[in-house]
Amino acid sequence: MAPPRILVVGAGFAGVECVRRLERRLAPGEAQITLVTPFSYQLYLPLLPQVASGVLTPQSVAVSLRRSRRHRTRIVPGGAIGVDTRAKVCVIRKITDEIVNEPYDYIVLAAGSVTRTFDIPGLLDNARGMKTLAEAAYVRDHVIAQLDLADASHDEAERASRLQFVVVGGGYAGTETAACLQRLTTSAVRHYPRLDARLIKWHLIDIAPKLMPELGDKLGQAALEVLRKRNIEVSLGVSIAEAGPEQVTFTDGRVLPCRTLIWTAGVAASPLIATLGAETVRGRLAVTPQLNLPGVDGVFSLGDAAAVPDLAKGDGAVCPPTAQHAMRQGRVLADNLIASLRHQPLRDYVHKDLGLVVDLGGKDAVSKPLGVELRGLPAQAVARGYHWSALRTNVAKTRVMTNWMLNAVAGDDFVRTGFQSRKPATLRDFEYTDVYLTPEQIREHTAATVIKH
């Protein structure tokens, strides 16, 4: 009899932690493990702003999945675009664009999230995100290119538009992105004698009335003071009304000449979740505290893709889409999946949030570990210590620590690779949110598939 087939979709914090635990705790031959992911690495997403600013190299935050000595998982290079839970088949589009059906006995949906967008004219065509490694590398090239082009231009209006930068989203990603990239341009402009540093202006806007409200009023205000001290213009209660290639219109009526719009206004669960036709909570799959889909055999979900009940908070709360929850959910889910294979009882996921860290670059940071409010160097030490310890391999830890030390000693560099320099890339080009199938298309693809148990 063939061993059960376990299919894990997604190689983020949740998916990789689940696979690692399955590899450690399942006996050889007890199950077949398959991982679906476009790239054979785990991306340490919280450090992307530092990749965009050049503090870290891209490979230092991309941890290879093939380095493990225990590696026995089959990796399918592609993305899941539909799931037929009745036929127990996942439809996969490989990176070659070939569409294949992958049967399973158990499926783990750790598909993560995508950048949340709204129906704003020009947004998808003119904004850049900060959700993938390619986006971070592209944004860095793009920002440095604006300095190069402004320096080479004799048109004052063109210069002004190239030296204005807008970041939308006052959460952790947006705040860290604006802070880190502002440090980059401030350091770089010293090497452009024809540019007036006063013309470079960064704008951080958010429709919310407070910056990072999860930090509390004191730390949120402290972060706001750091940004404004650096001459980053923070506008709260404001969003984008229209995004053009050379200007941005705010909802308060301001029109800003600008050729760089970075969109970090939250995330939404992967569109894959909608293909299941199951109950969702704000787009995330509604699962039990044991991380399985009620009433559906063999389906588990976790991380950003799932609305996991937060039993530590209670009152119907769901776990926030953070790395600390995703990693711990991955371990619990693996244990529960193994328990299902062995006909043992499942356990609930319970985790009390450890706190929040926000790295603003240089000596600036705000952190709230275990409820203790920190700012400045102590907060920076906690923030970087937390990120460093969360990296999965010693190789990754060594690379990141070396990058931090080199940047502290030698300062920033302003080399751009020319990545997609001839083709302006947008949100559409990195996250492929238009490739998912409808339920009818999924049934067509799976109709001919014979599931063998």
Fill in the CATH topology of the largest domain. FAD/NAD(P)-binding domain
Q: Indicate the CATH class of the largest domain.
A: Alpha Beta
By secondary-structure content and strand pairing, the structural class works out as alpha/beta
Helix content: 25-40%
In round numbers, the mean pLDDT is 92
Strand content: 15-25%
- Main sheet record: 7 strands, mixed
Report on the structure:
One of its GO terms (molecular function) is NADH dehydrogenase activity. Belongs to the NADH dehydrogenase family. Pfam families: Pyr_redox_2. This is NAD(P)/FAD-dependent oxidoreductase. Residues 5-330 form the FAD/NAD(P)-binding domain. By secondary structure, the protein is an alpha/beta fold. The protein folds into two domains: 5-48 and 62-115 and 268-353 and 431-448, FAD/NAD(P)-binding domain; 117-265, 3-Layer(bba) Sandwich (FAD/NAD(P)-binding domain). Helix content is 31%, strand content 23%. It has twelve helices and 25 strands. The chain has helices at 13-25, 48-52, 123-126, 133-152, 156-162, 172-188, 217-229, 323-341, 377-390, 394-410, 428-431, 439-446, and strands at 5-9, 32-37, 41-43, 62-64, 74-84, 89-94, 99-103, 106-109, 113-115, 127-128, 164-168, 201-206, 232-236, 240-243, 247-250, 255-257, 260-263, 267-269, 280-281, 284-286, 299-301, 306-307, 355-359, 365-369, 374-375. The strands form seven sheets. Strands 7-6-5-2-1-8-21 form a seven-stranded mixed β-sheet. The chain has a five-stranded parallel β-sheet with strand order 10-17-11-12-13. α6 links the parallel β11 (164-168) and β12. α1 (13-25) packs parallel to α8 and α4 packs antiparallel against α5. The radius of gyration is 23 Å and the shape is globular. 46% of the residues are buried. The mean pLDDT is 92.
